[in-house]
Design a protein that fits this description.
Elements lengths: L3 E5 L4 H5 L6 E10 L2 H12 L12 E3 L27 H6 L4 E4 L5 H10 L2 E4 L5 H5 L2 E8 L8 E15 L13
Parallel strand pairs: 1-2, 2-3, 3-4, 4-5
Antiparallel strand pairs: 2-7, 5-7, 6-7
Length: 180
Amino acid sequence: MAEIKNITTPLSVSDVCELRAGDEVAISGVLLTGRDQAHKRLCDLIDAGKELPVDLKGQVIYFVGPSPAREGRAIGSAGPTTSSRMDAFSPVLIERGLKGMIGKGYRGENVRLALKDHRAVHFAAVGGAGALLSKHIVKSSIIAFEDLATEAIRRLEVVDFPVIVAYDCHGGSVYEMNNV
């Protein structure tokens, strides 16, 4: 059984460089959330030369649109969104200091190059396990774009959030490994 690597956000370049495709990781700390529309708004603000509502340096964005929380829970089901939907926006955000992303599925070549050039990492979370993943989220609050509802940017506090390194900053891909 592989050793699980424990990391805490925000991530540094050295944190990212220690990770390799296929590593099992437990993340604790803060994750930001965002999907297509939040990513587009962030990039529109960057294009307009305006200040972002969040500091991306060292942060990890989880591609998720969670369901409403049941009473006594921080969040509802919180399963990953298909990562490729953010491919048009991710390189711009990585250039701004974003160090990690969490989603499901493949990333385009433009994202993979940005990960290498700017020392960032893409994690995969298990799709279809949103209820299980939500148990690792202990606090949730909307911090930007509230009008986007489930697609608003949230600040999640997580404990031992389980992911796998899908693409590392060295060019490795879990999808291209022989044992997958």
